[in-house]
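question for whoever is on the cluster today: can someone run the full assembly for these? two chains, 544 residues total. i dont have access anymore since they changed the login thing
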Amino acid sequence: MKKAVITVVGHDTVGIIASVCTYLAEQNVNILDISQTIVNGYFNMMMIADVTEPKSGFSDLVTGLDGIGKKVGVAIHCQREDIFDLMHRV
Amino acid sequence: MINMKEVIETNEMIEKENLDVRTITLGISLIDCIDPDVDRLCQKIRNKIESRAEKLVKTGEDIEKEFGIPIVNKRISVTPIGLIGSSACSKTSDFVKIAAALEEAAENVGVNFIGGYSALVSKGMTKGEETLIRSIPEALSSTQRVMSSVNAGSTRTGINMDAVRLMGDVICETSAKTADNDSIGCTKLVVLCNAPDDNPFMAGAFHGVTEADEIINVGVSGPGVVKTALTKVRGKDFETLCETVKKTAFKVTRVGQLVALEASKRLDIPFGIVDLSLAPTPAVGDSVADILKEMGLEQPGAPGTTAALALLNDQVKKGGVMASSYVGGLSGAFIPVSEDRGMIDAVKAGALTIEKLEAMTCVCSVGLDMIAVPGDTKPETVAGIIADEMAIGMVNNKTTAVRIIPVAGRKVGDMAQFGGLLGFAPIMKVNGFSCDEFVNRKGRIPAPIHSFKN
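^ ran it for u. tokens below:
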């Protein structure tokens, strides 16, 4: 299984999670874990998702999520999990 | 499983602290291109580079996007042209044709720089290598992406003083030929001692003769990340300071290792090394000088600077070595002047001199890097500065280098503008006493003895 970390940071508003999840479902991406918190007054959400077979490829998924972020007014990053694993685990 | 705190930490390093992978450098051997006809040689070189590096830039961009980590430069290094061109080139203009071929190939595949317009002459120069060295001013003034280096000494062979003296002339001539652009040609030319075969950083990158056909080497960066980590341990003891640098270097290097392995897999080219260098840029917050200040120095150049730098360099290596199985290249903290805003400020404030920088190069990666000096500096004086730096490398069994820019028409206190990652530099004062009779002696300085260490 290939995993990705999706982070959403920005001002809280109605429908952030809904729009991200709808898009992920359309892209055949299964969500494995979600956590959410408020840091320094900012909405922070992190998802771990299964990106083994996204419908239109990983690169397009990154672009698509970025586009949704711009529409909703938050910053959405989608990165392969390996970068975090390698940095924070010996 | 990864937690949110760790994800936020990584993304803050990237977004706020300038964490990036400085370069993916693809090394390509040109040995099979050798041909006695210069035009055919150029054609073969172009074909080989363009076919092998075709996907380099695209692959780098894909990795950037998927992992969310910027990869600033995509570069190529080739076998030293002094070897490749020697059977085809009888005059300097023949070598310049090869430089033009390298430039064209680099432009076609979209890389930032191509290194390897080089000669390895630590003991002696062949006719071909000497011709290449003499062609450097013309080659660098007629191209943008070509980088040149000359290895003029090593611990095993001593220092080739004929080459050092010649480089004094070549640097001054390159300066004059690019006088219109603040002598920018000299920013693409470095003289080395103990040059490594697998260095991914410019201007000193070349694909060594000990290397395989192709190899991927990666240079990491991240002075801003180290500096930010150190703000959290102000006033703490040296053990805490060292631990913090080490842990941060580990994280930074892991990113480099990841990018190197991904690039290697996607391009189907073996992974060579990760170069653990702290490479600054002129951007605010991306400075090695700022780390030294954070350690407790008012300005780099203050007493204690060499000790602080020695500590930093060693801890970066200790953390980095744990993070990657194959470490190589130059690996350490770079202290270029024009590419580091904190260094520029220190020179302007009168805290940092060439002499102090020379002392600092004894304990850190590379050497006198990106130092602008007055345009009327004599070739003999430039050769003397190079000889000093070569001696430090030779005796201490380390790589040292000189990338000095006598900026045409400028005098002490003026500013030279190089642009982009090359930055800008205040013109520094050079010791005016003569070394002419010393550097004009012919021959070489013998290799040092490695017993009776004192």
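summary bc i know u wont read the tokens: Residues 238-267 of chain B form the longest helix (30 residues). The radius of gyration of chain B is 21 Å.
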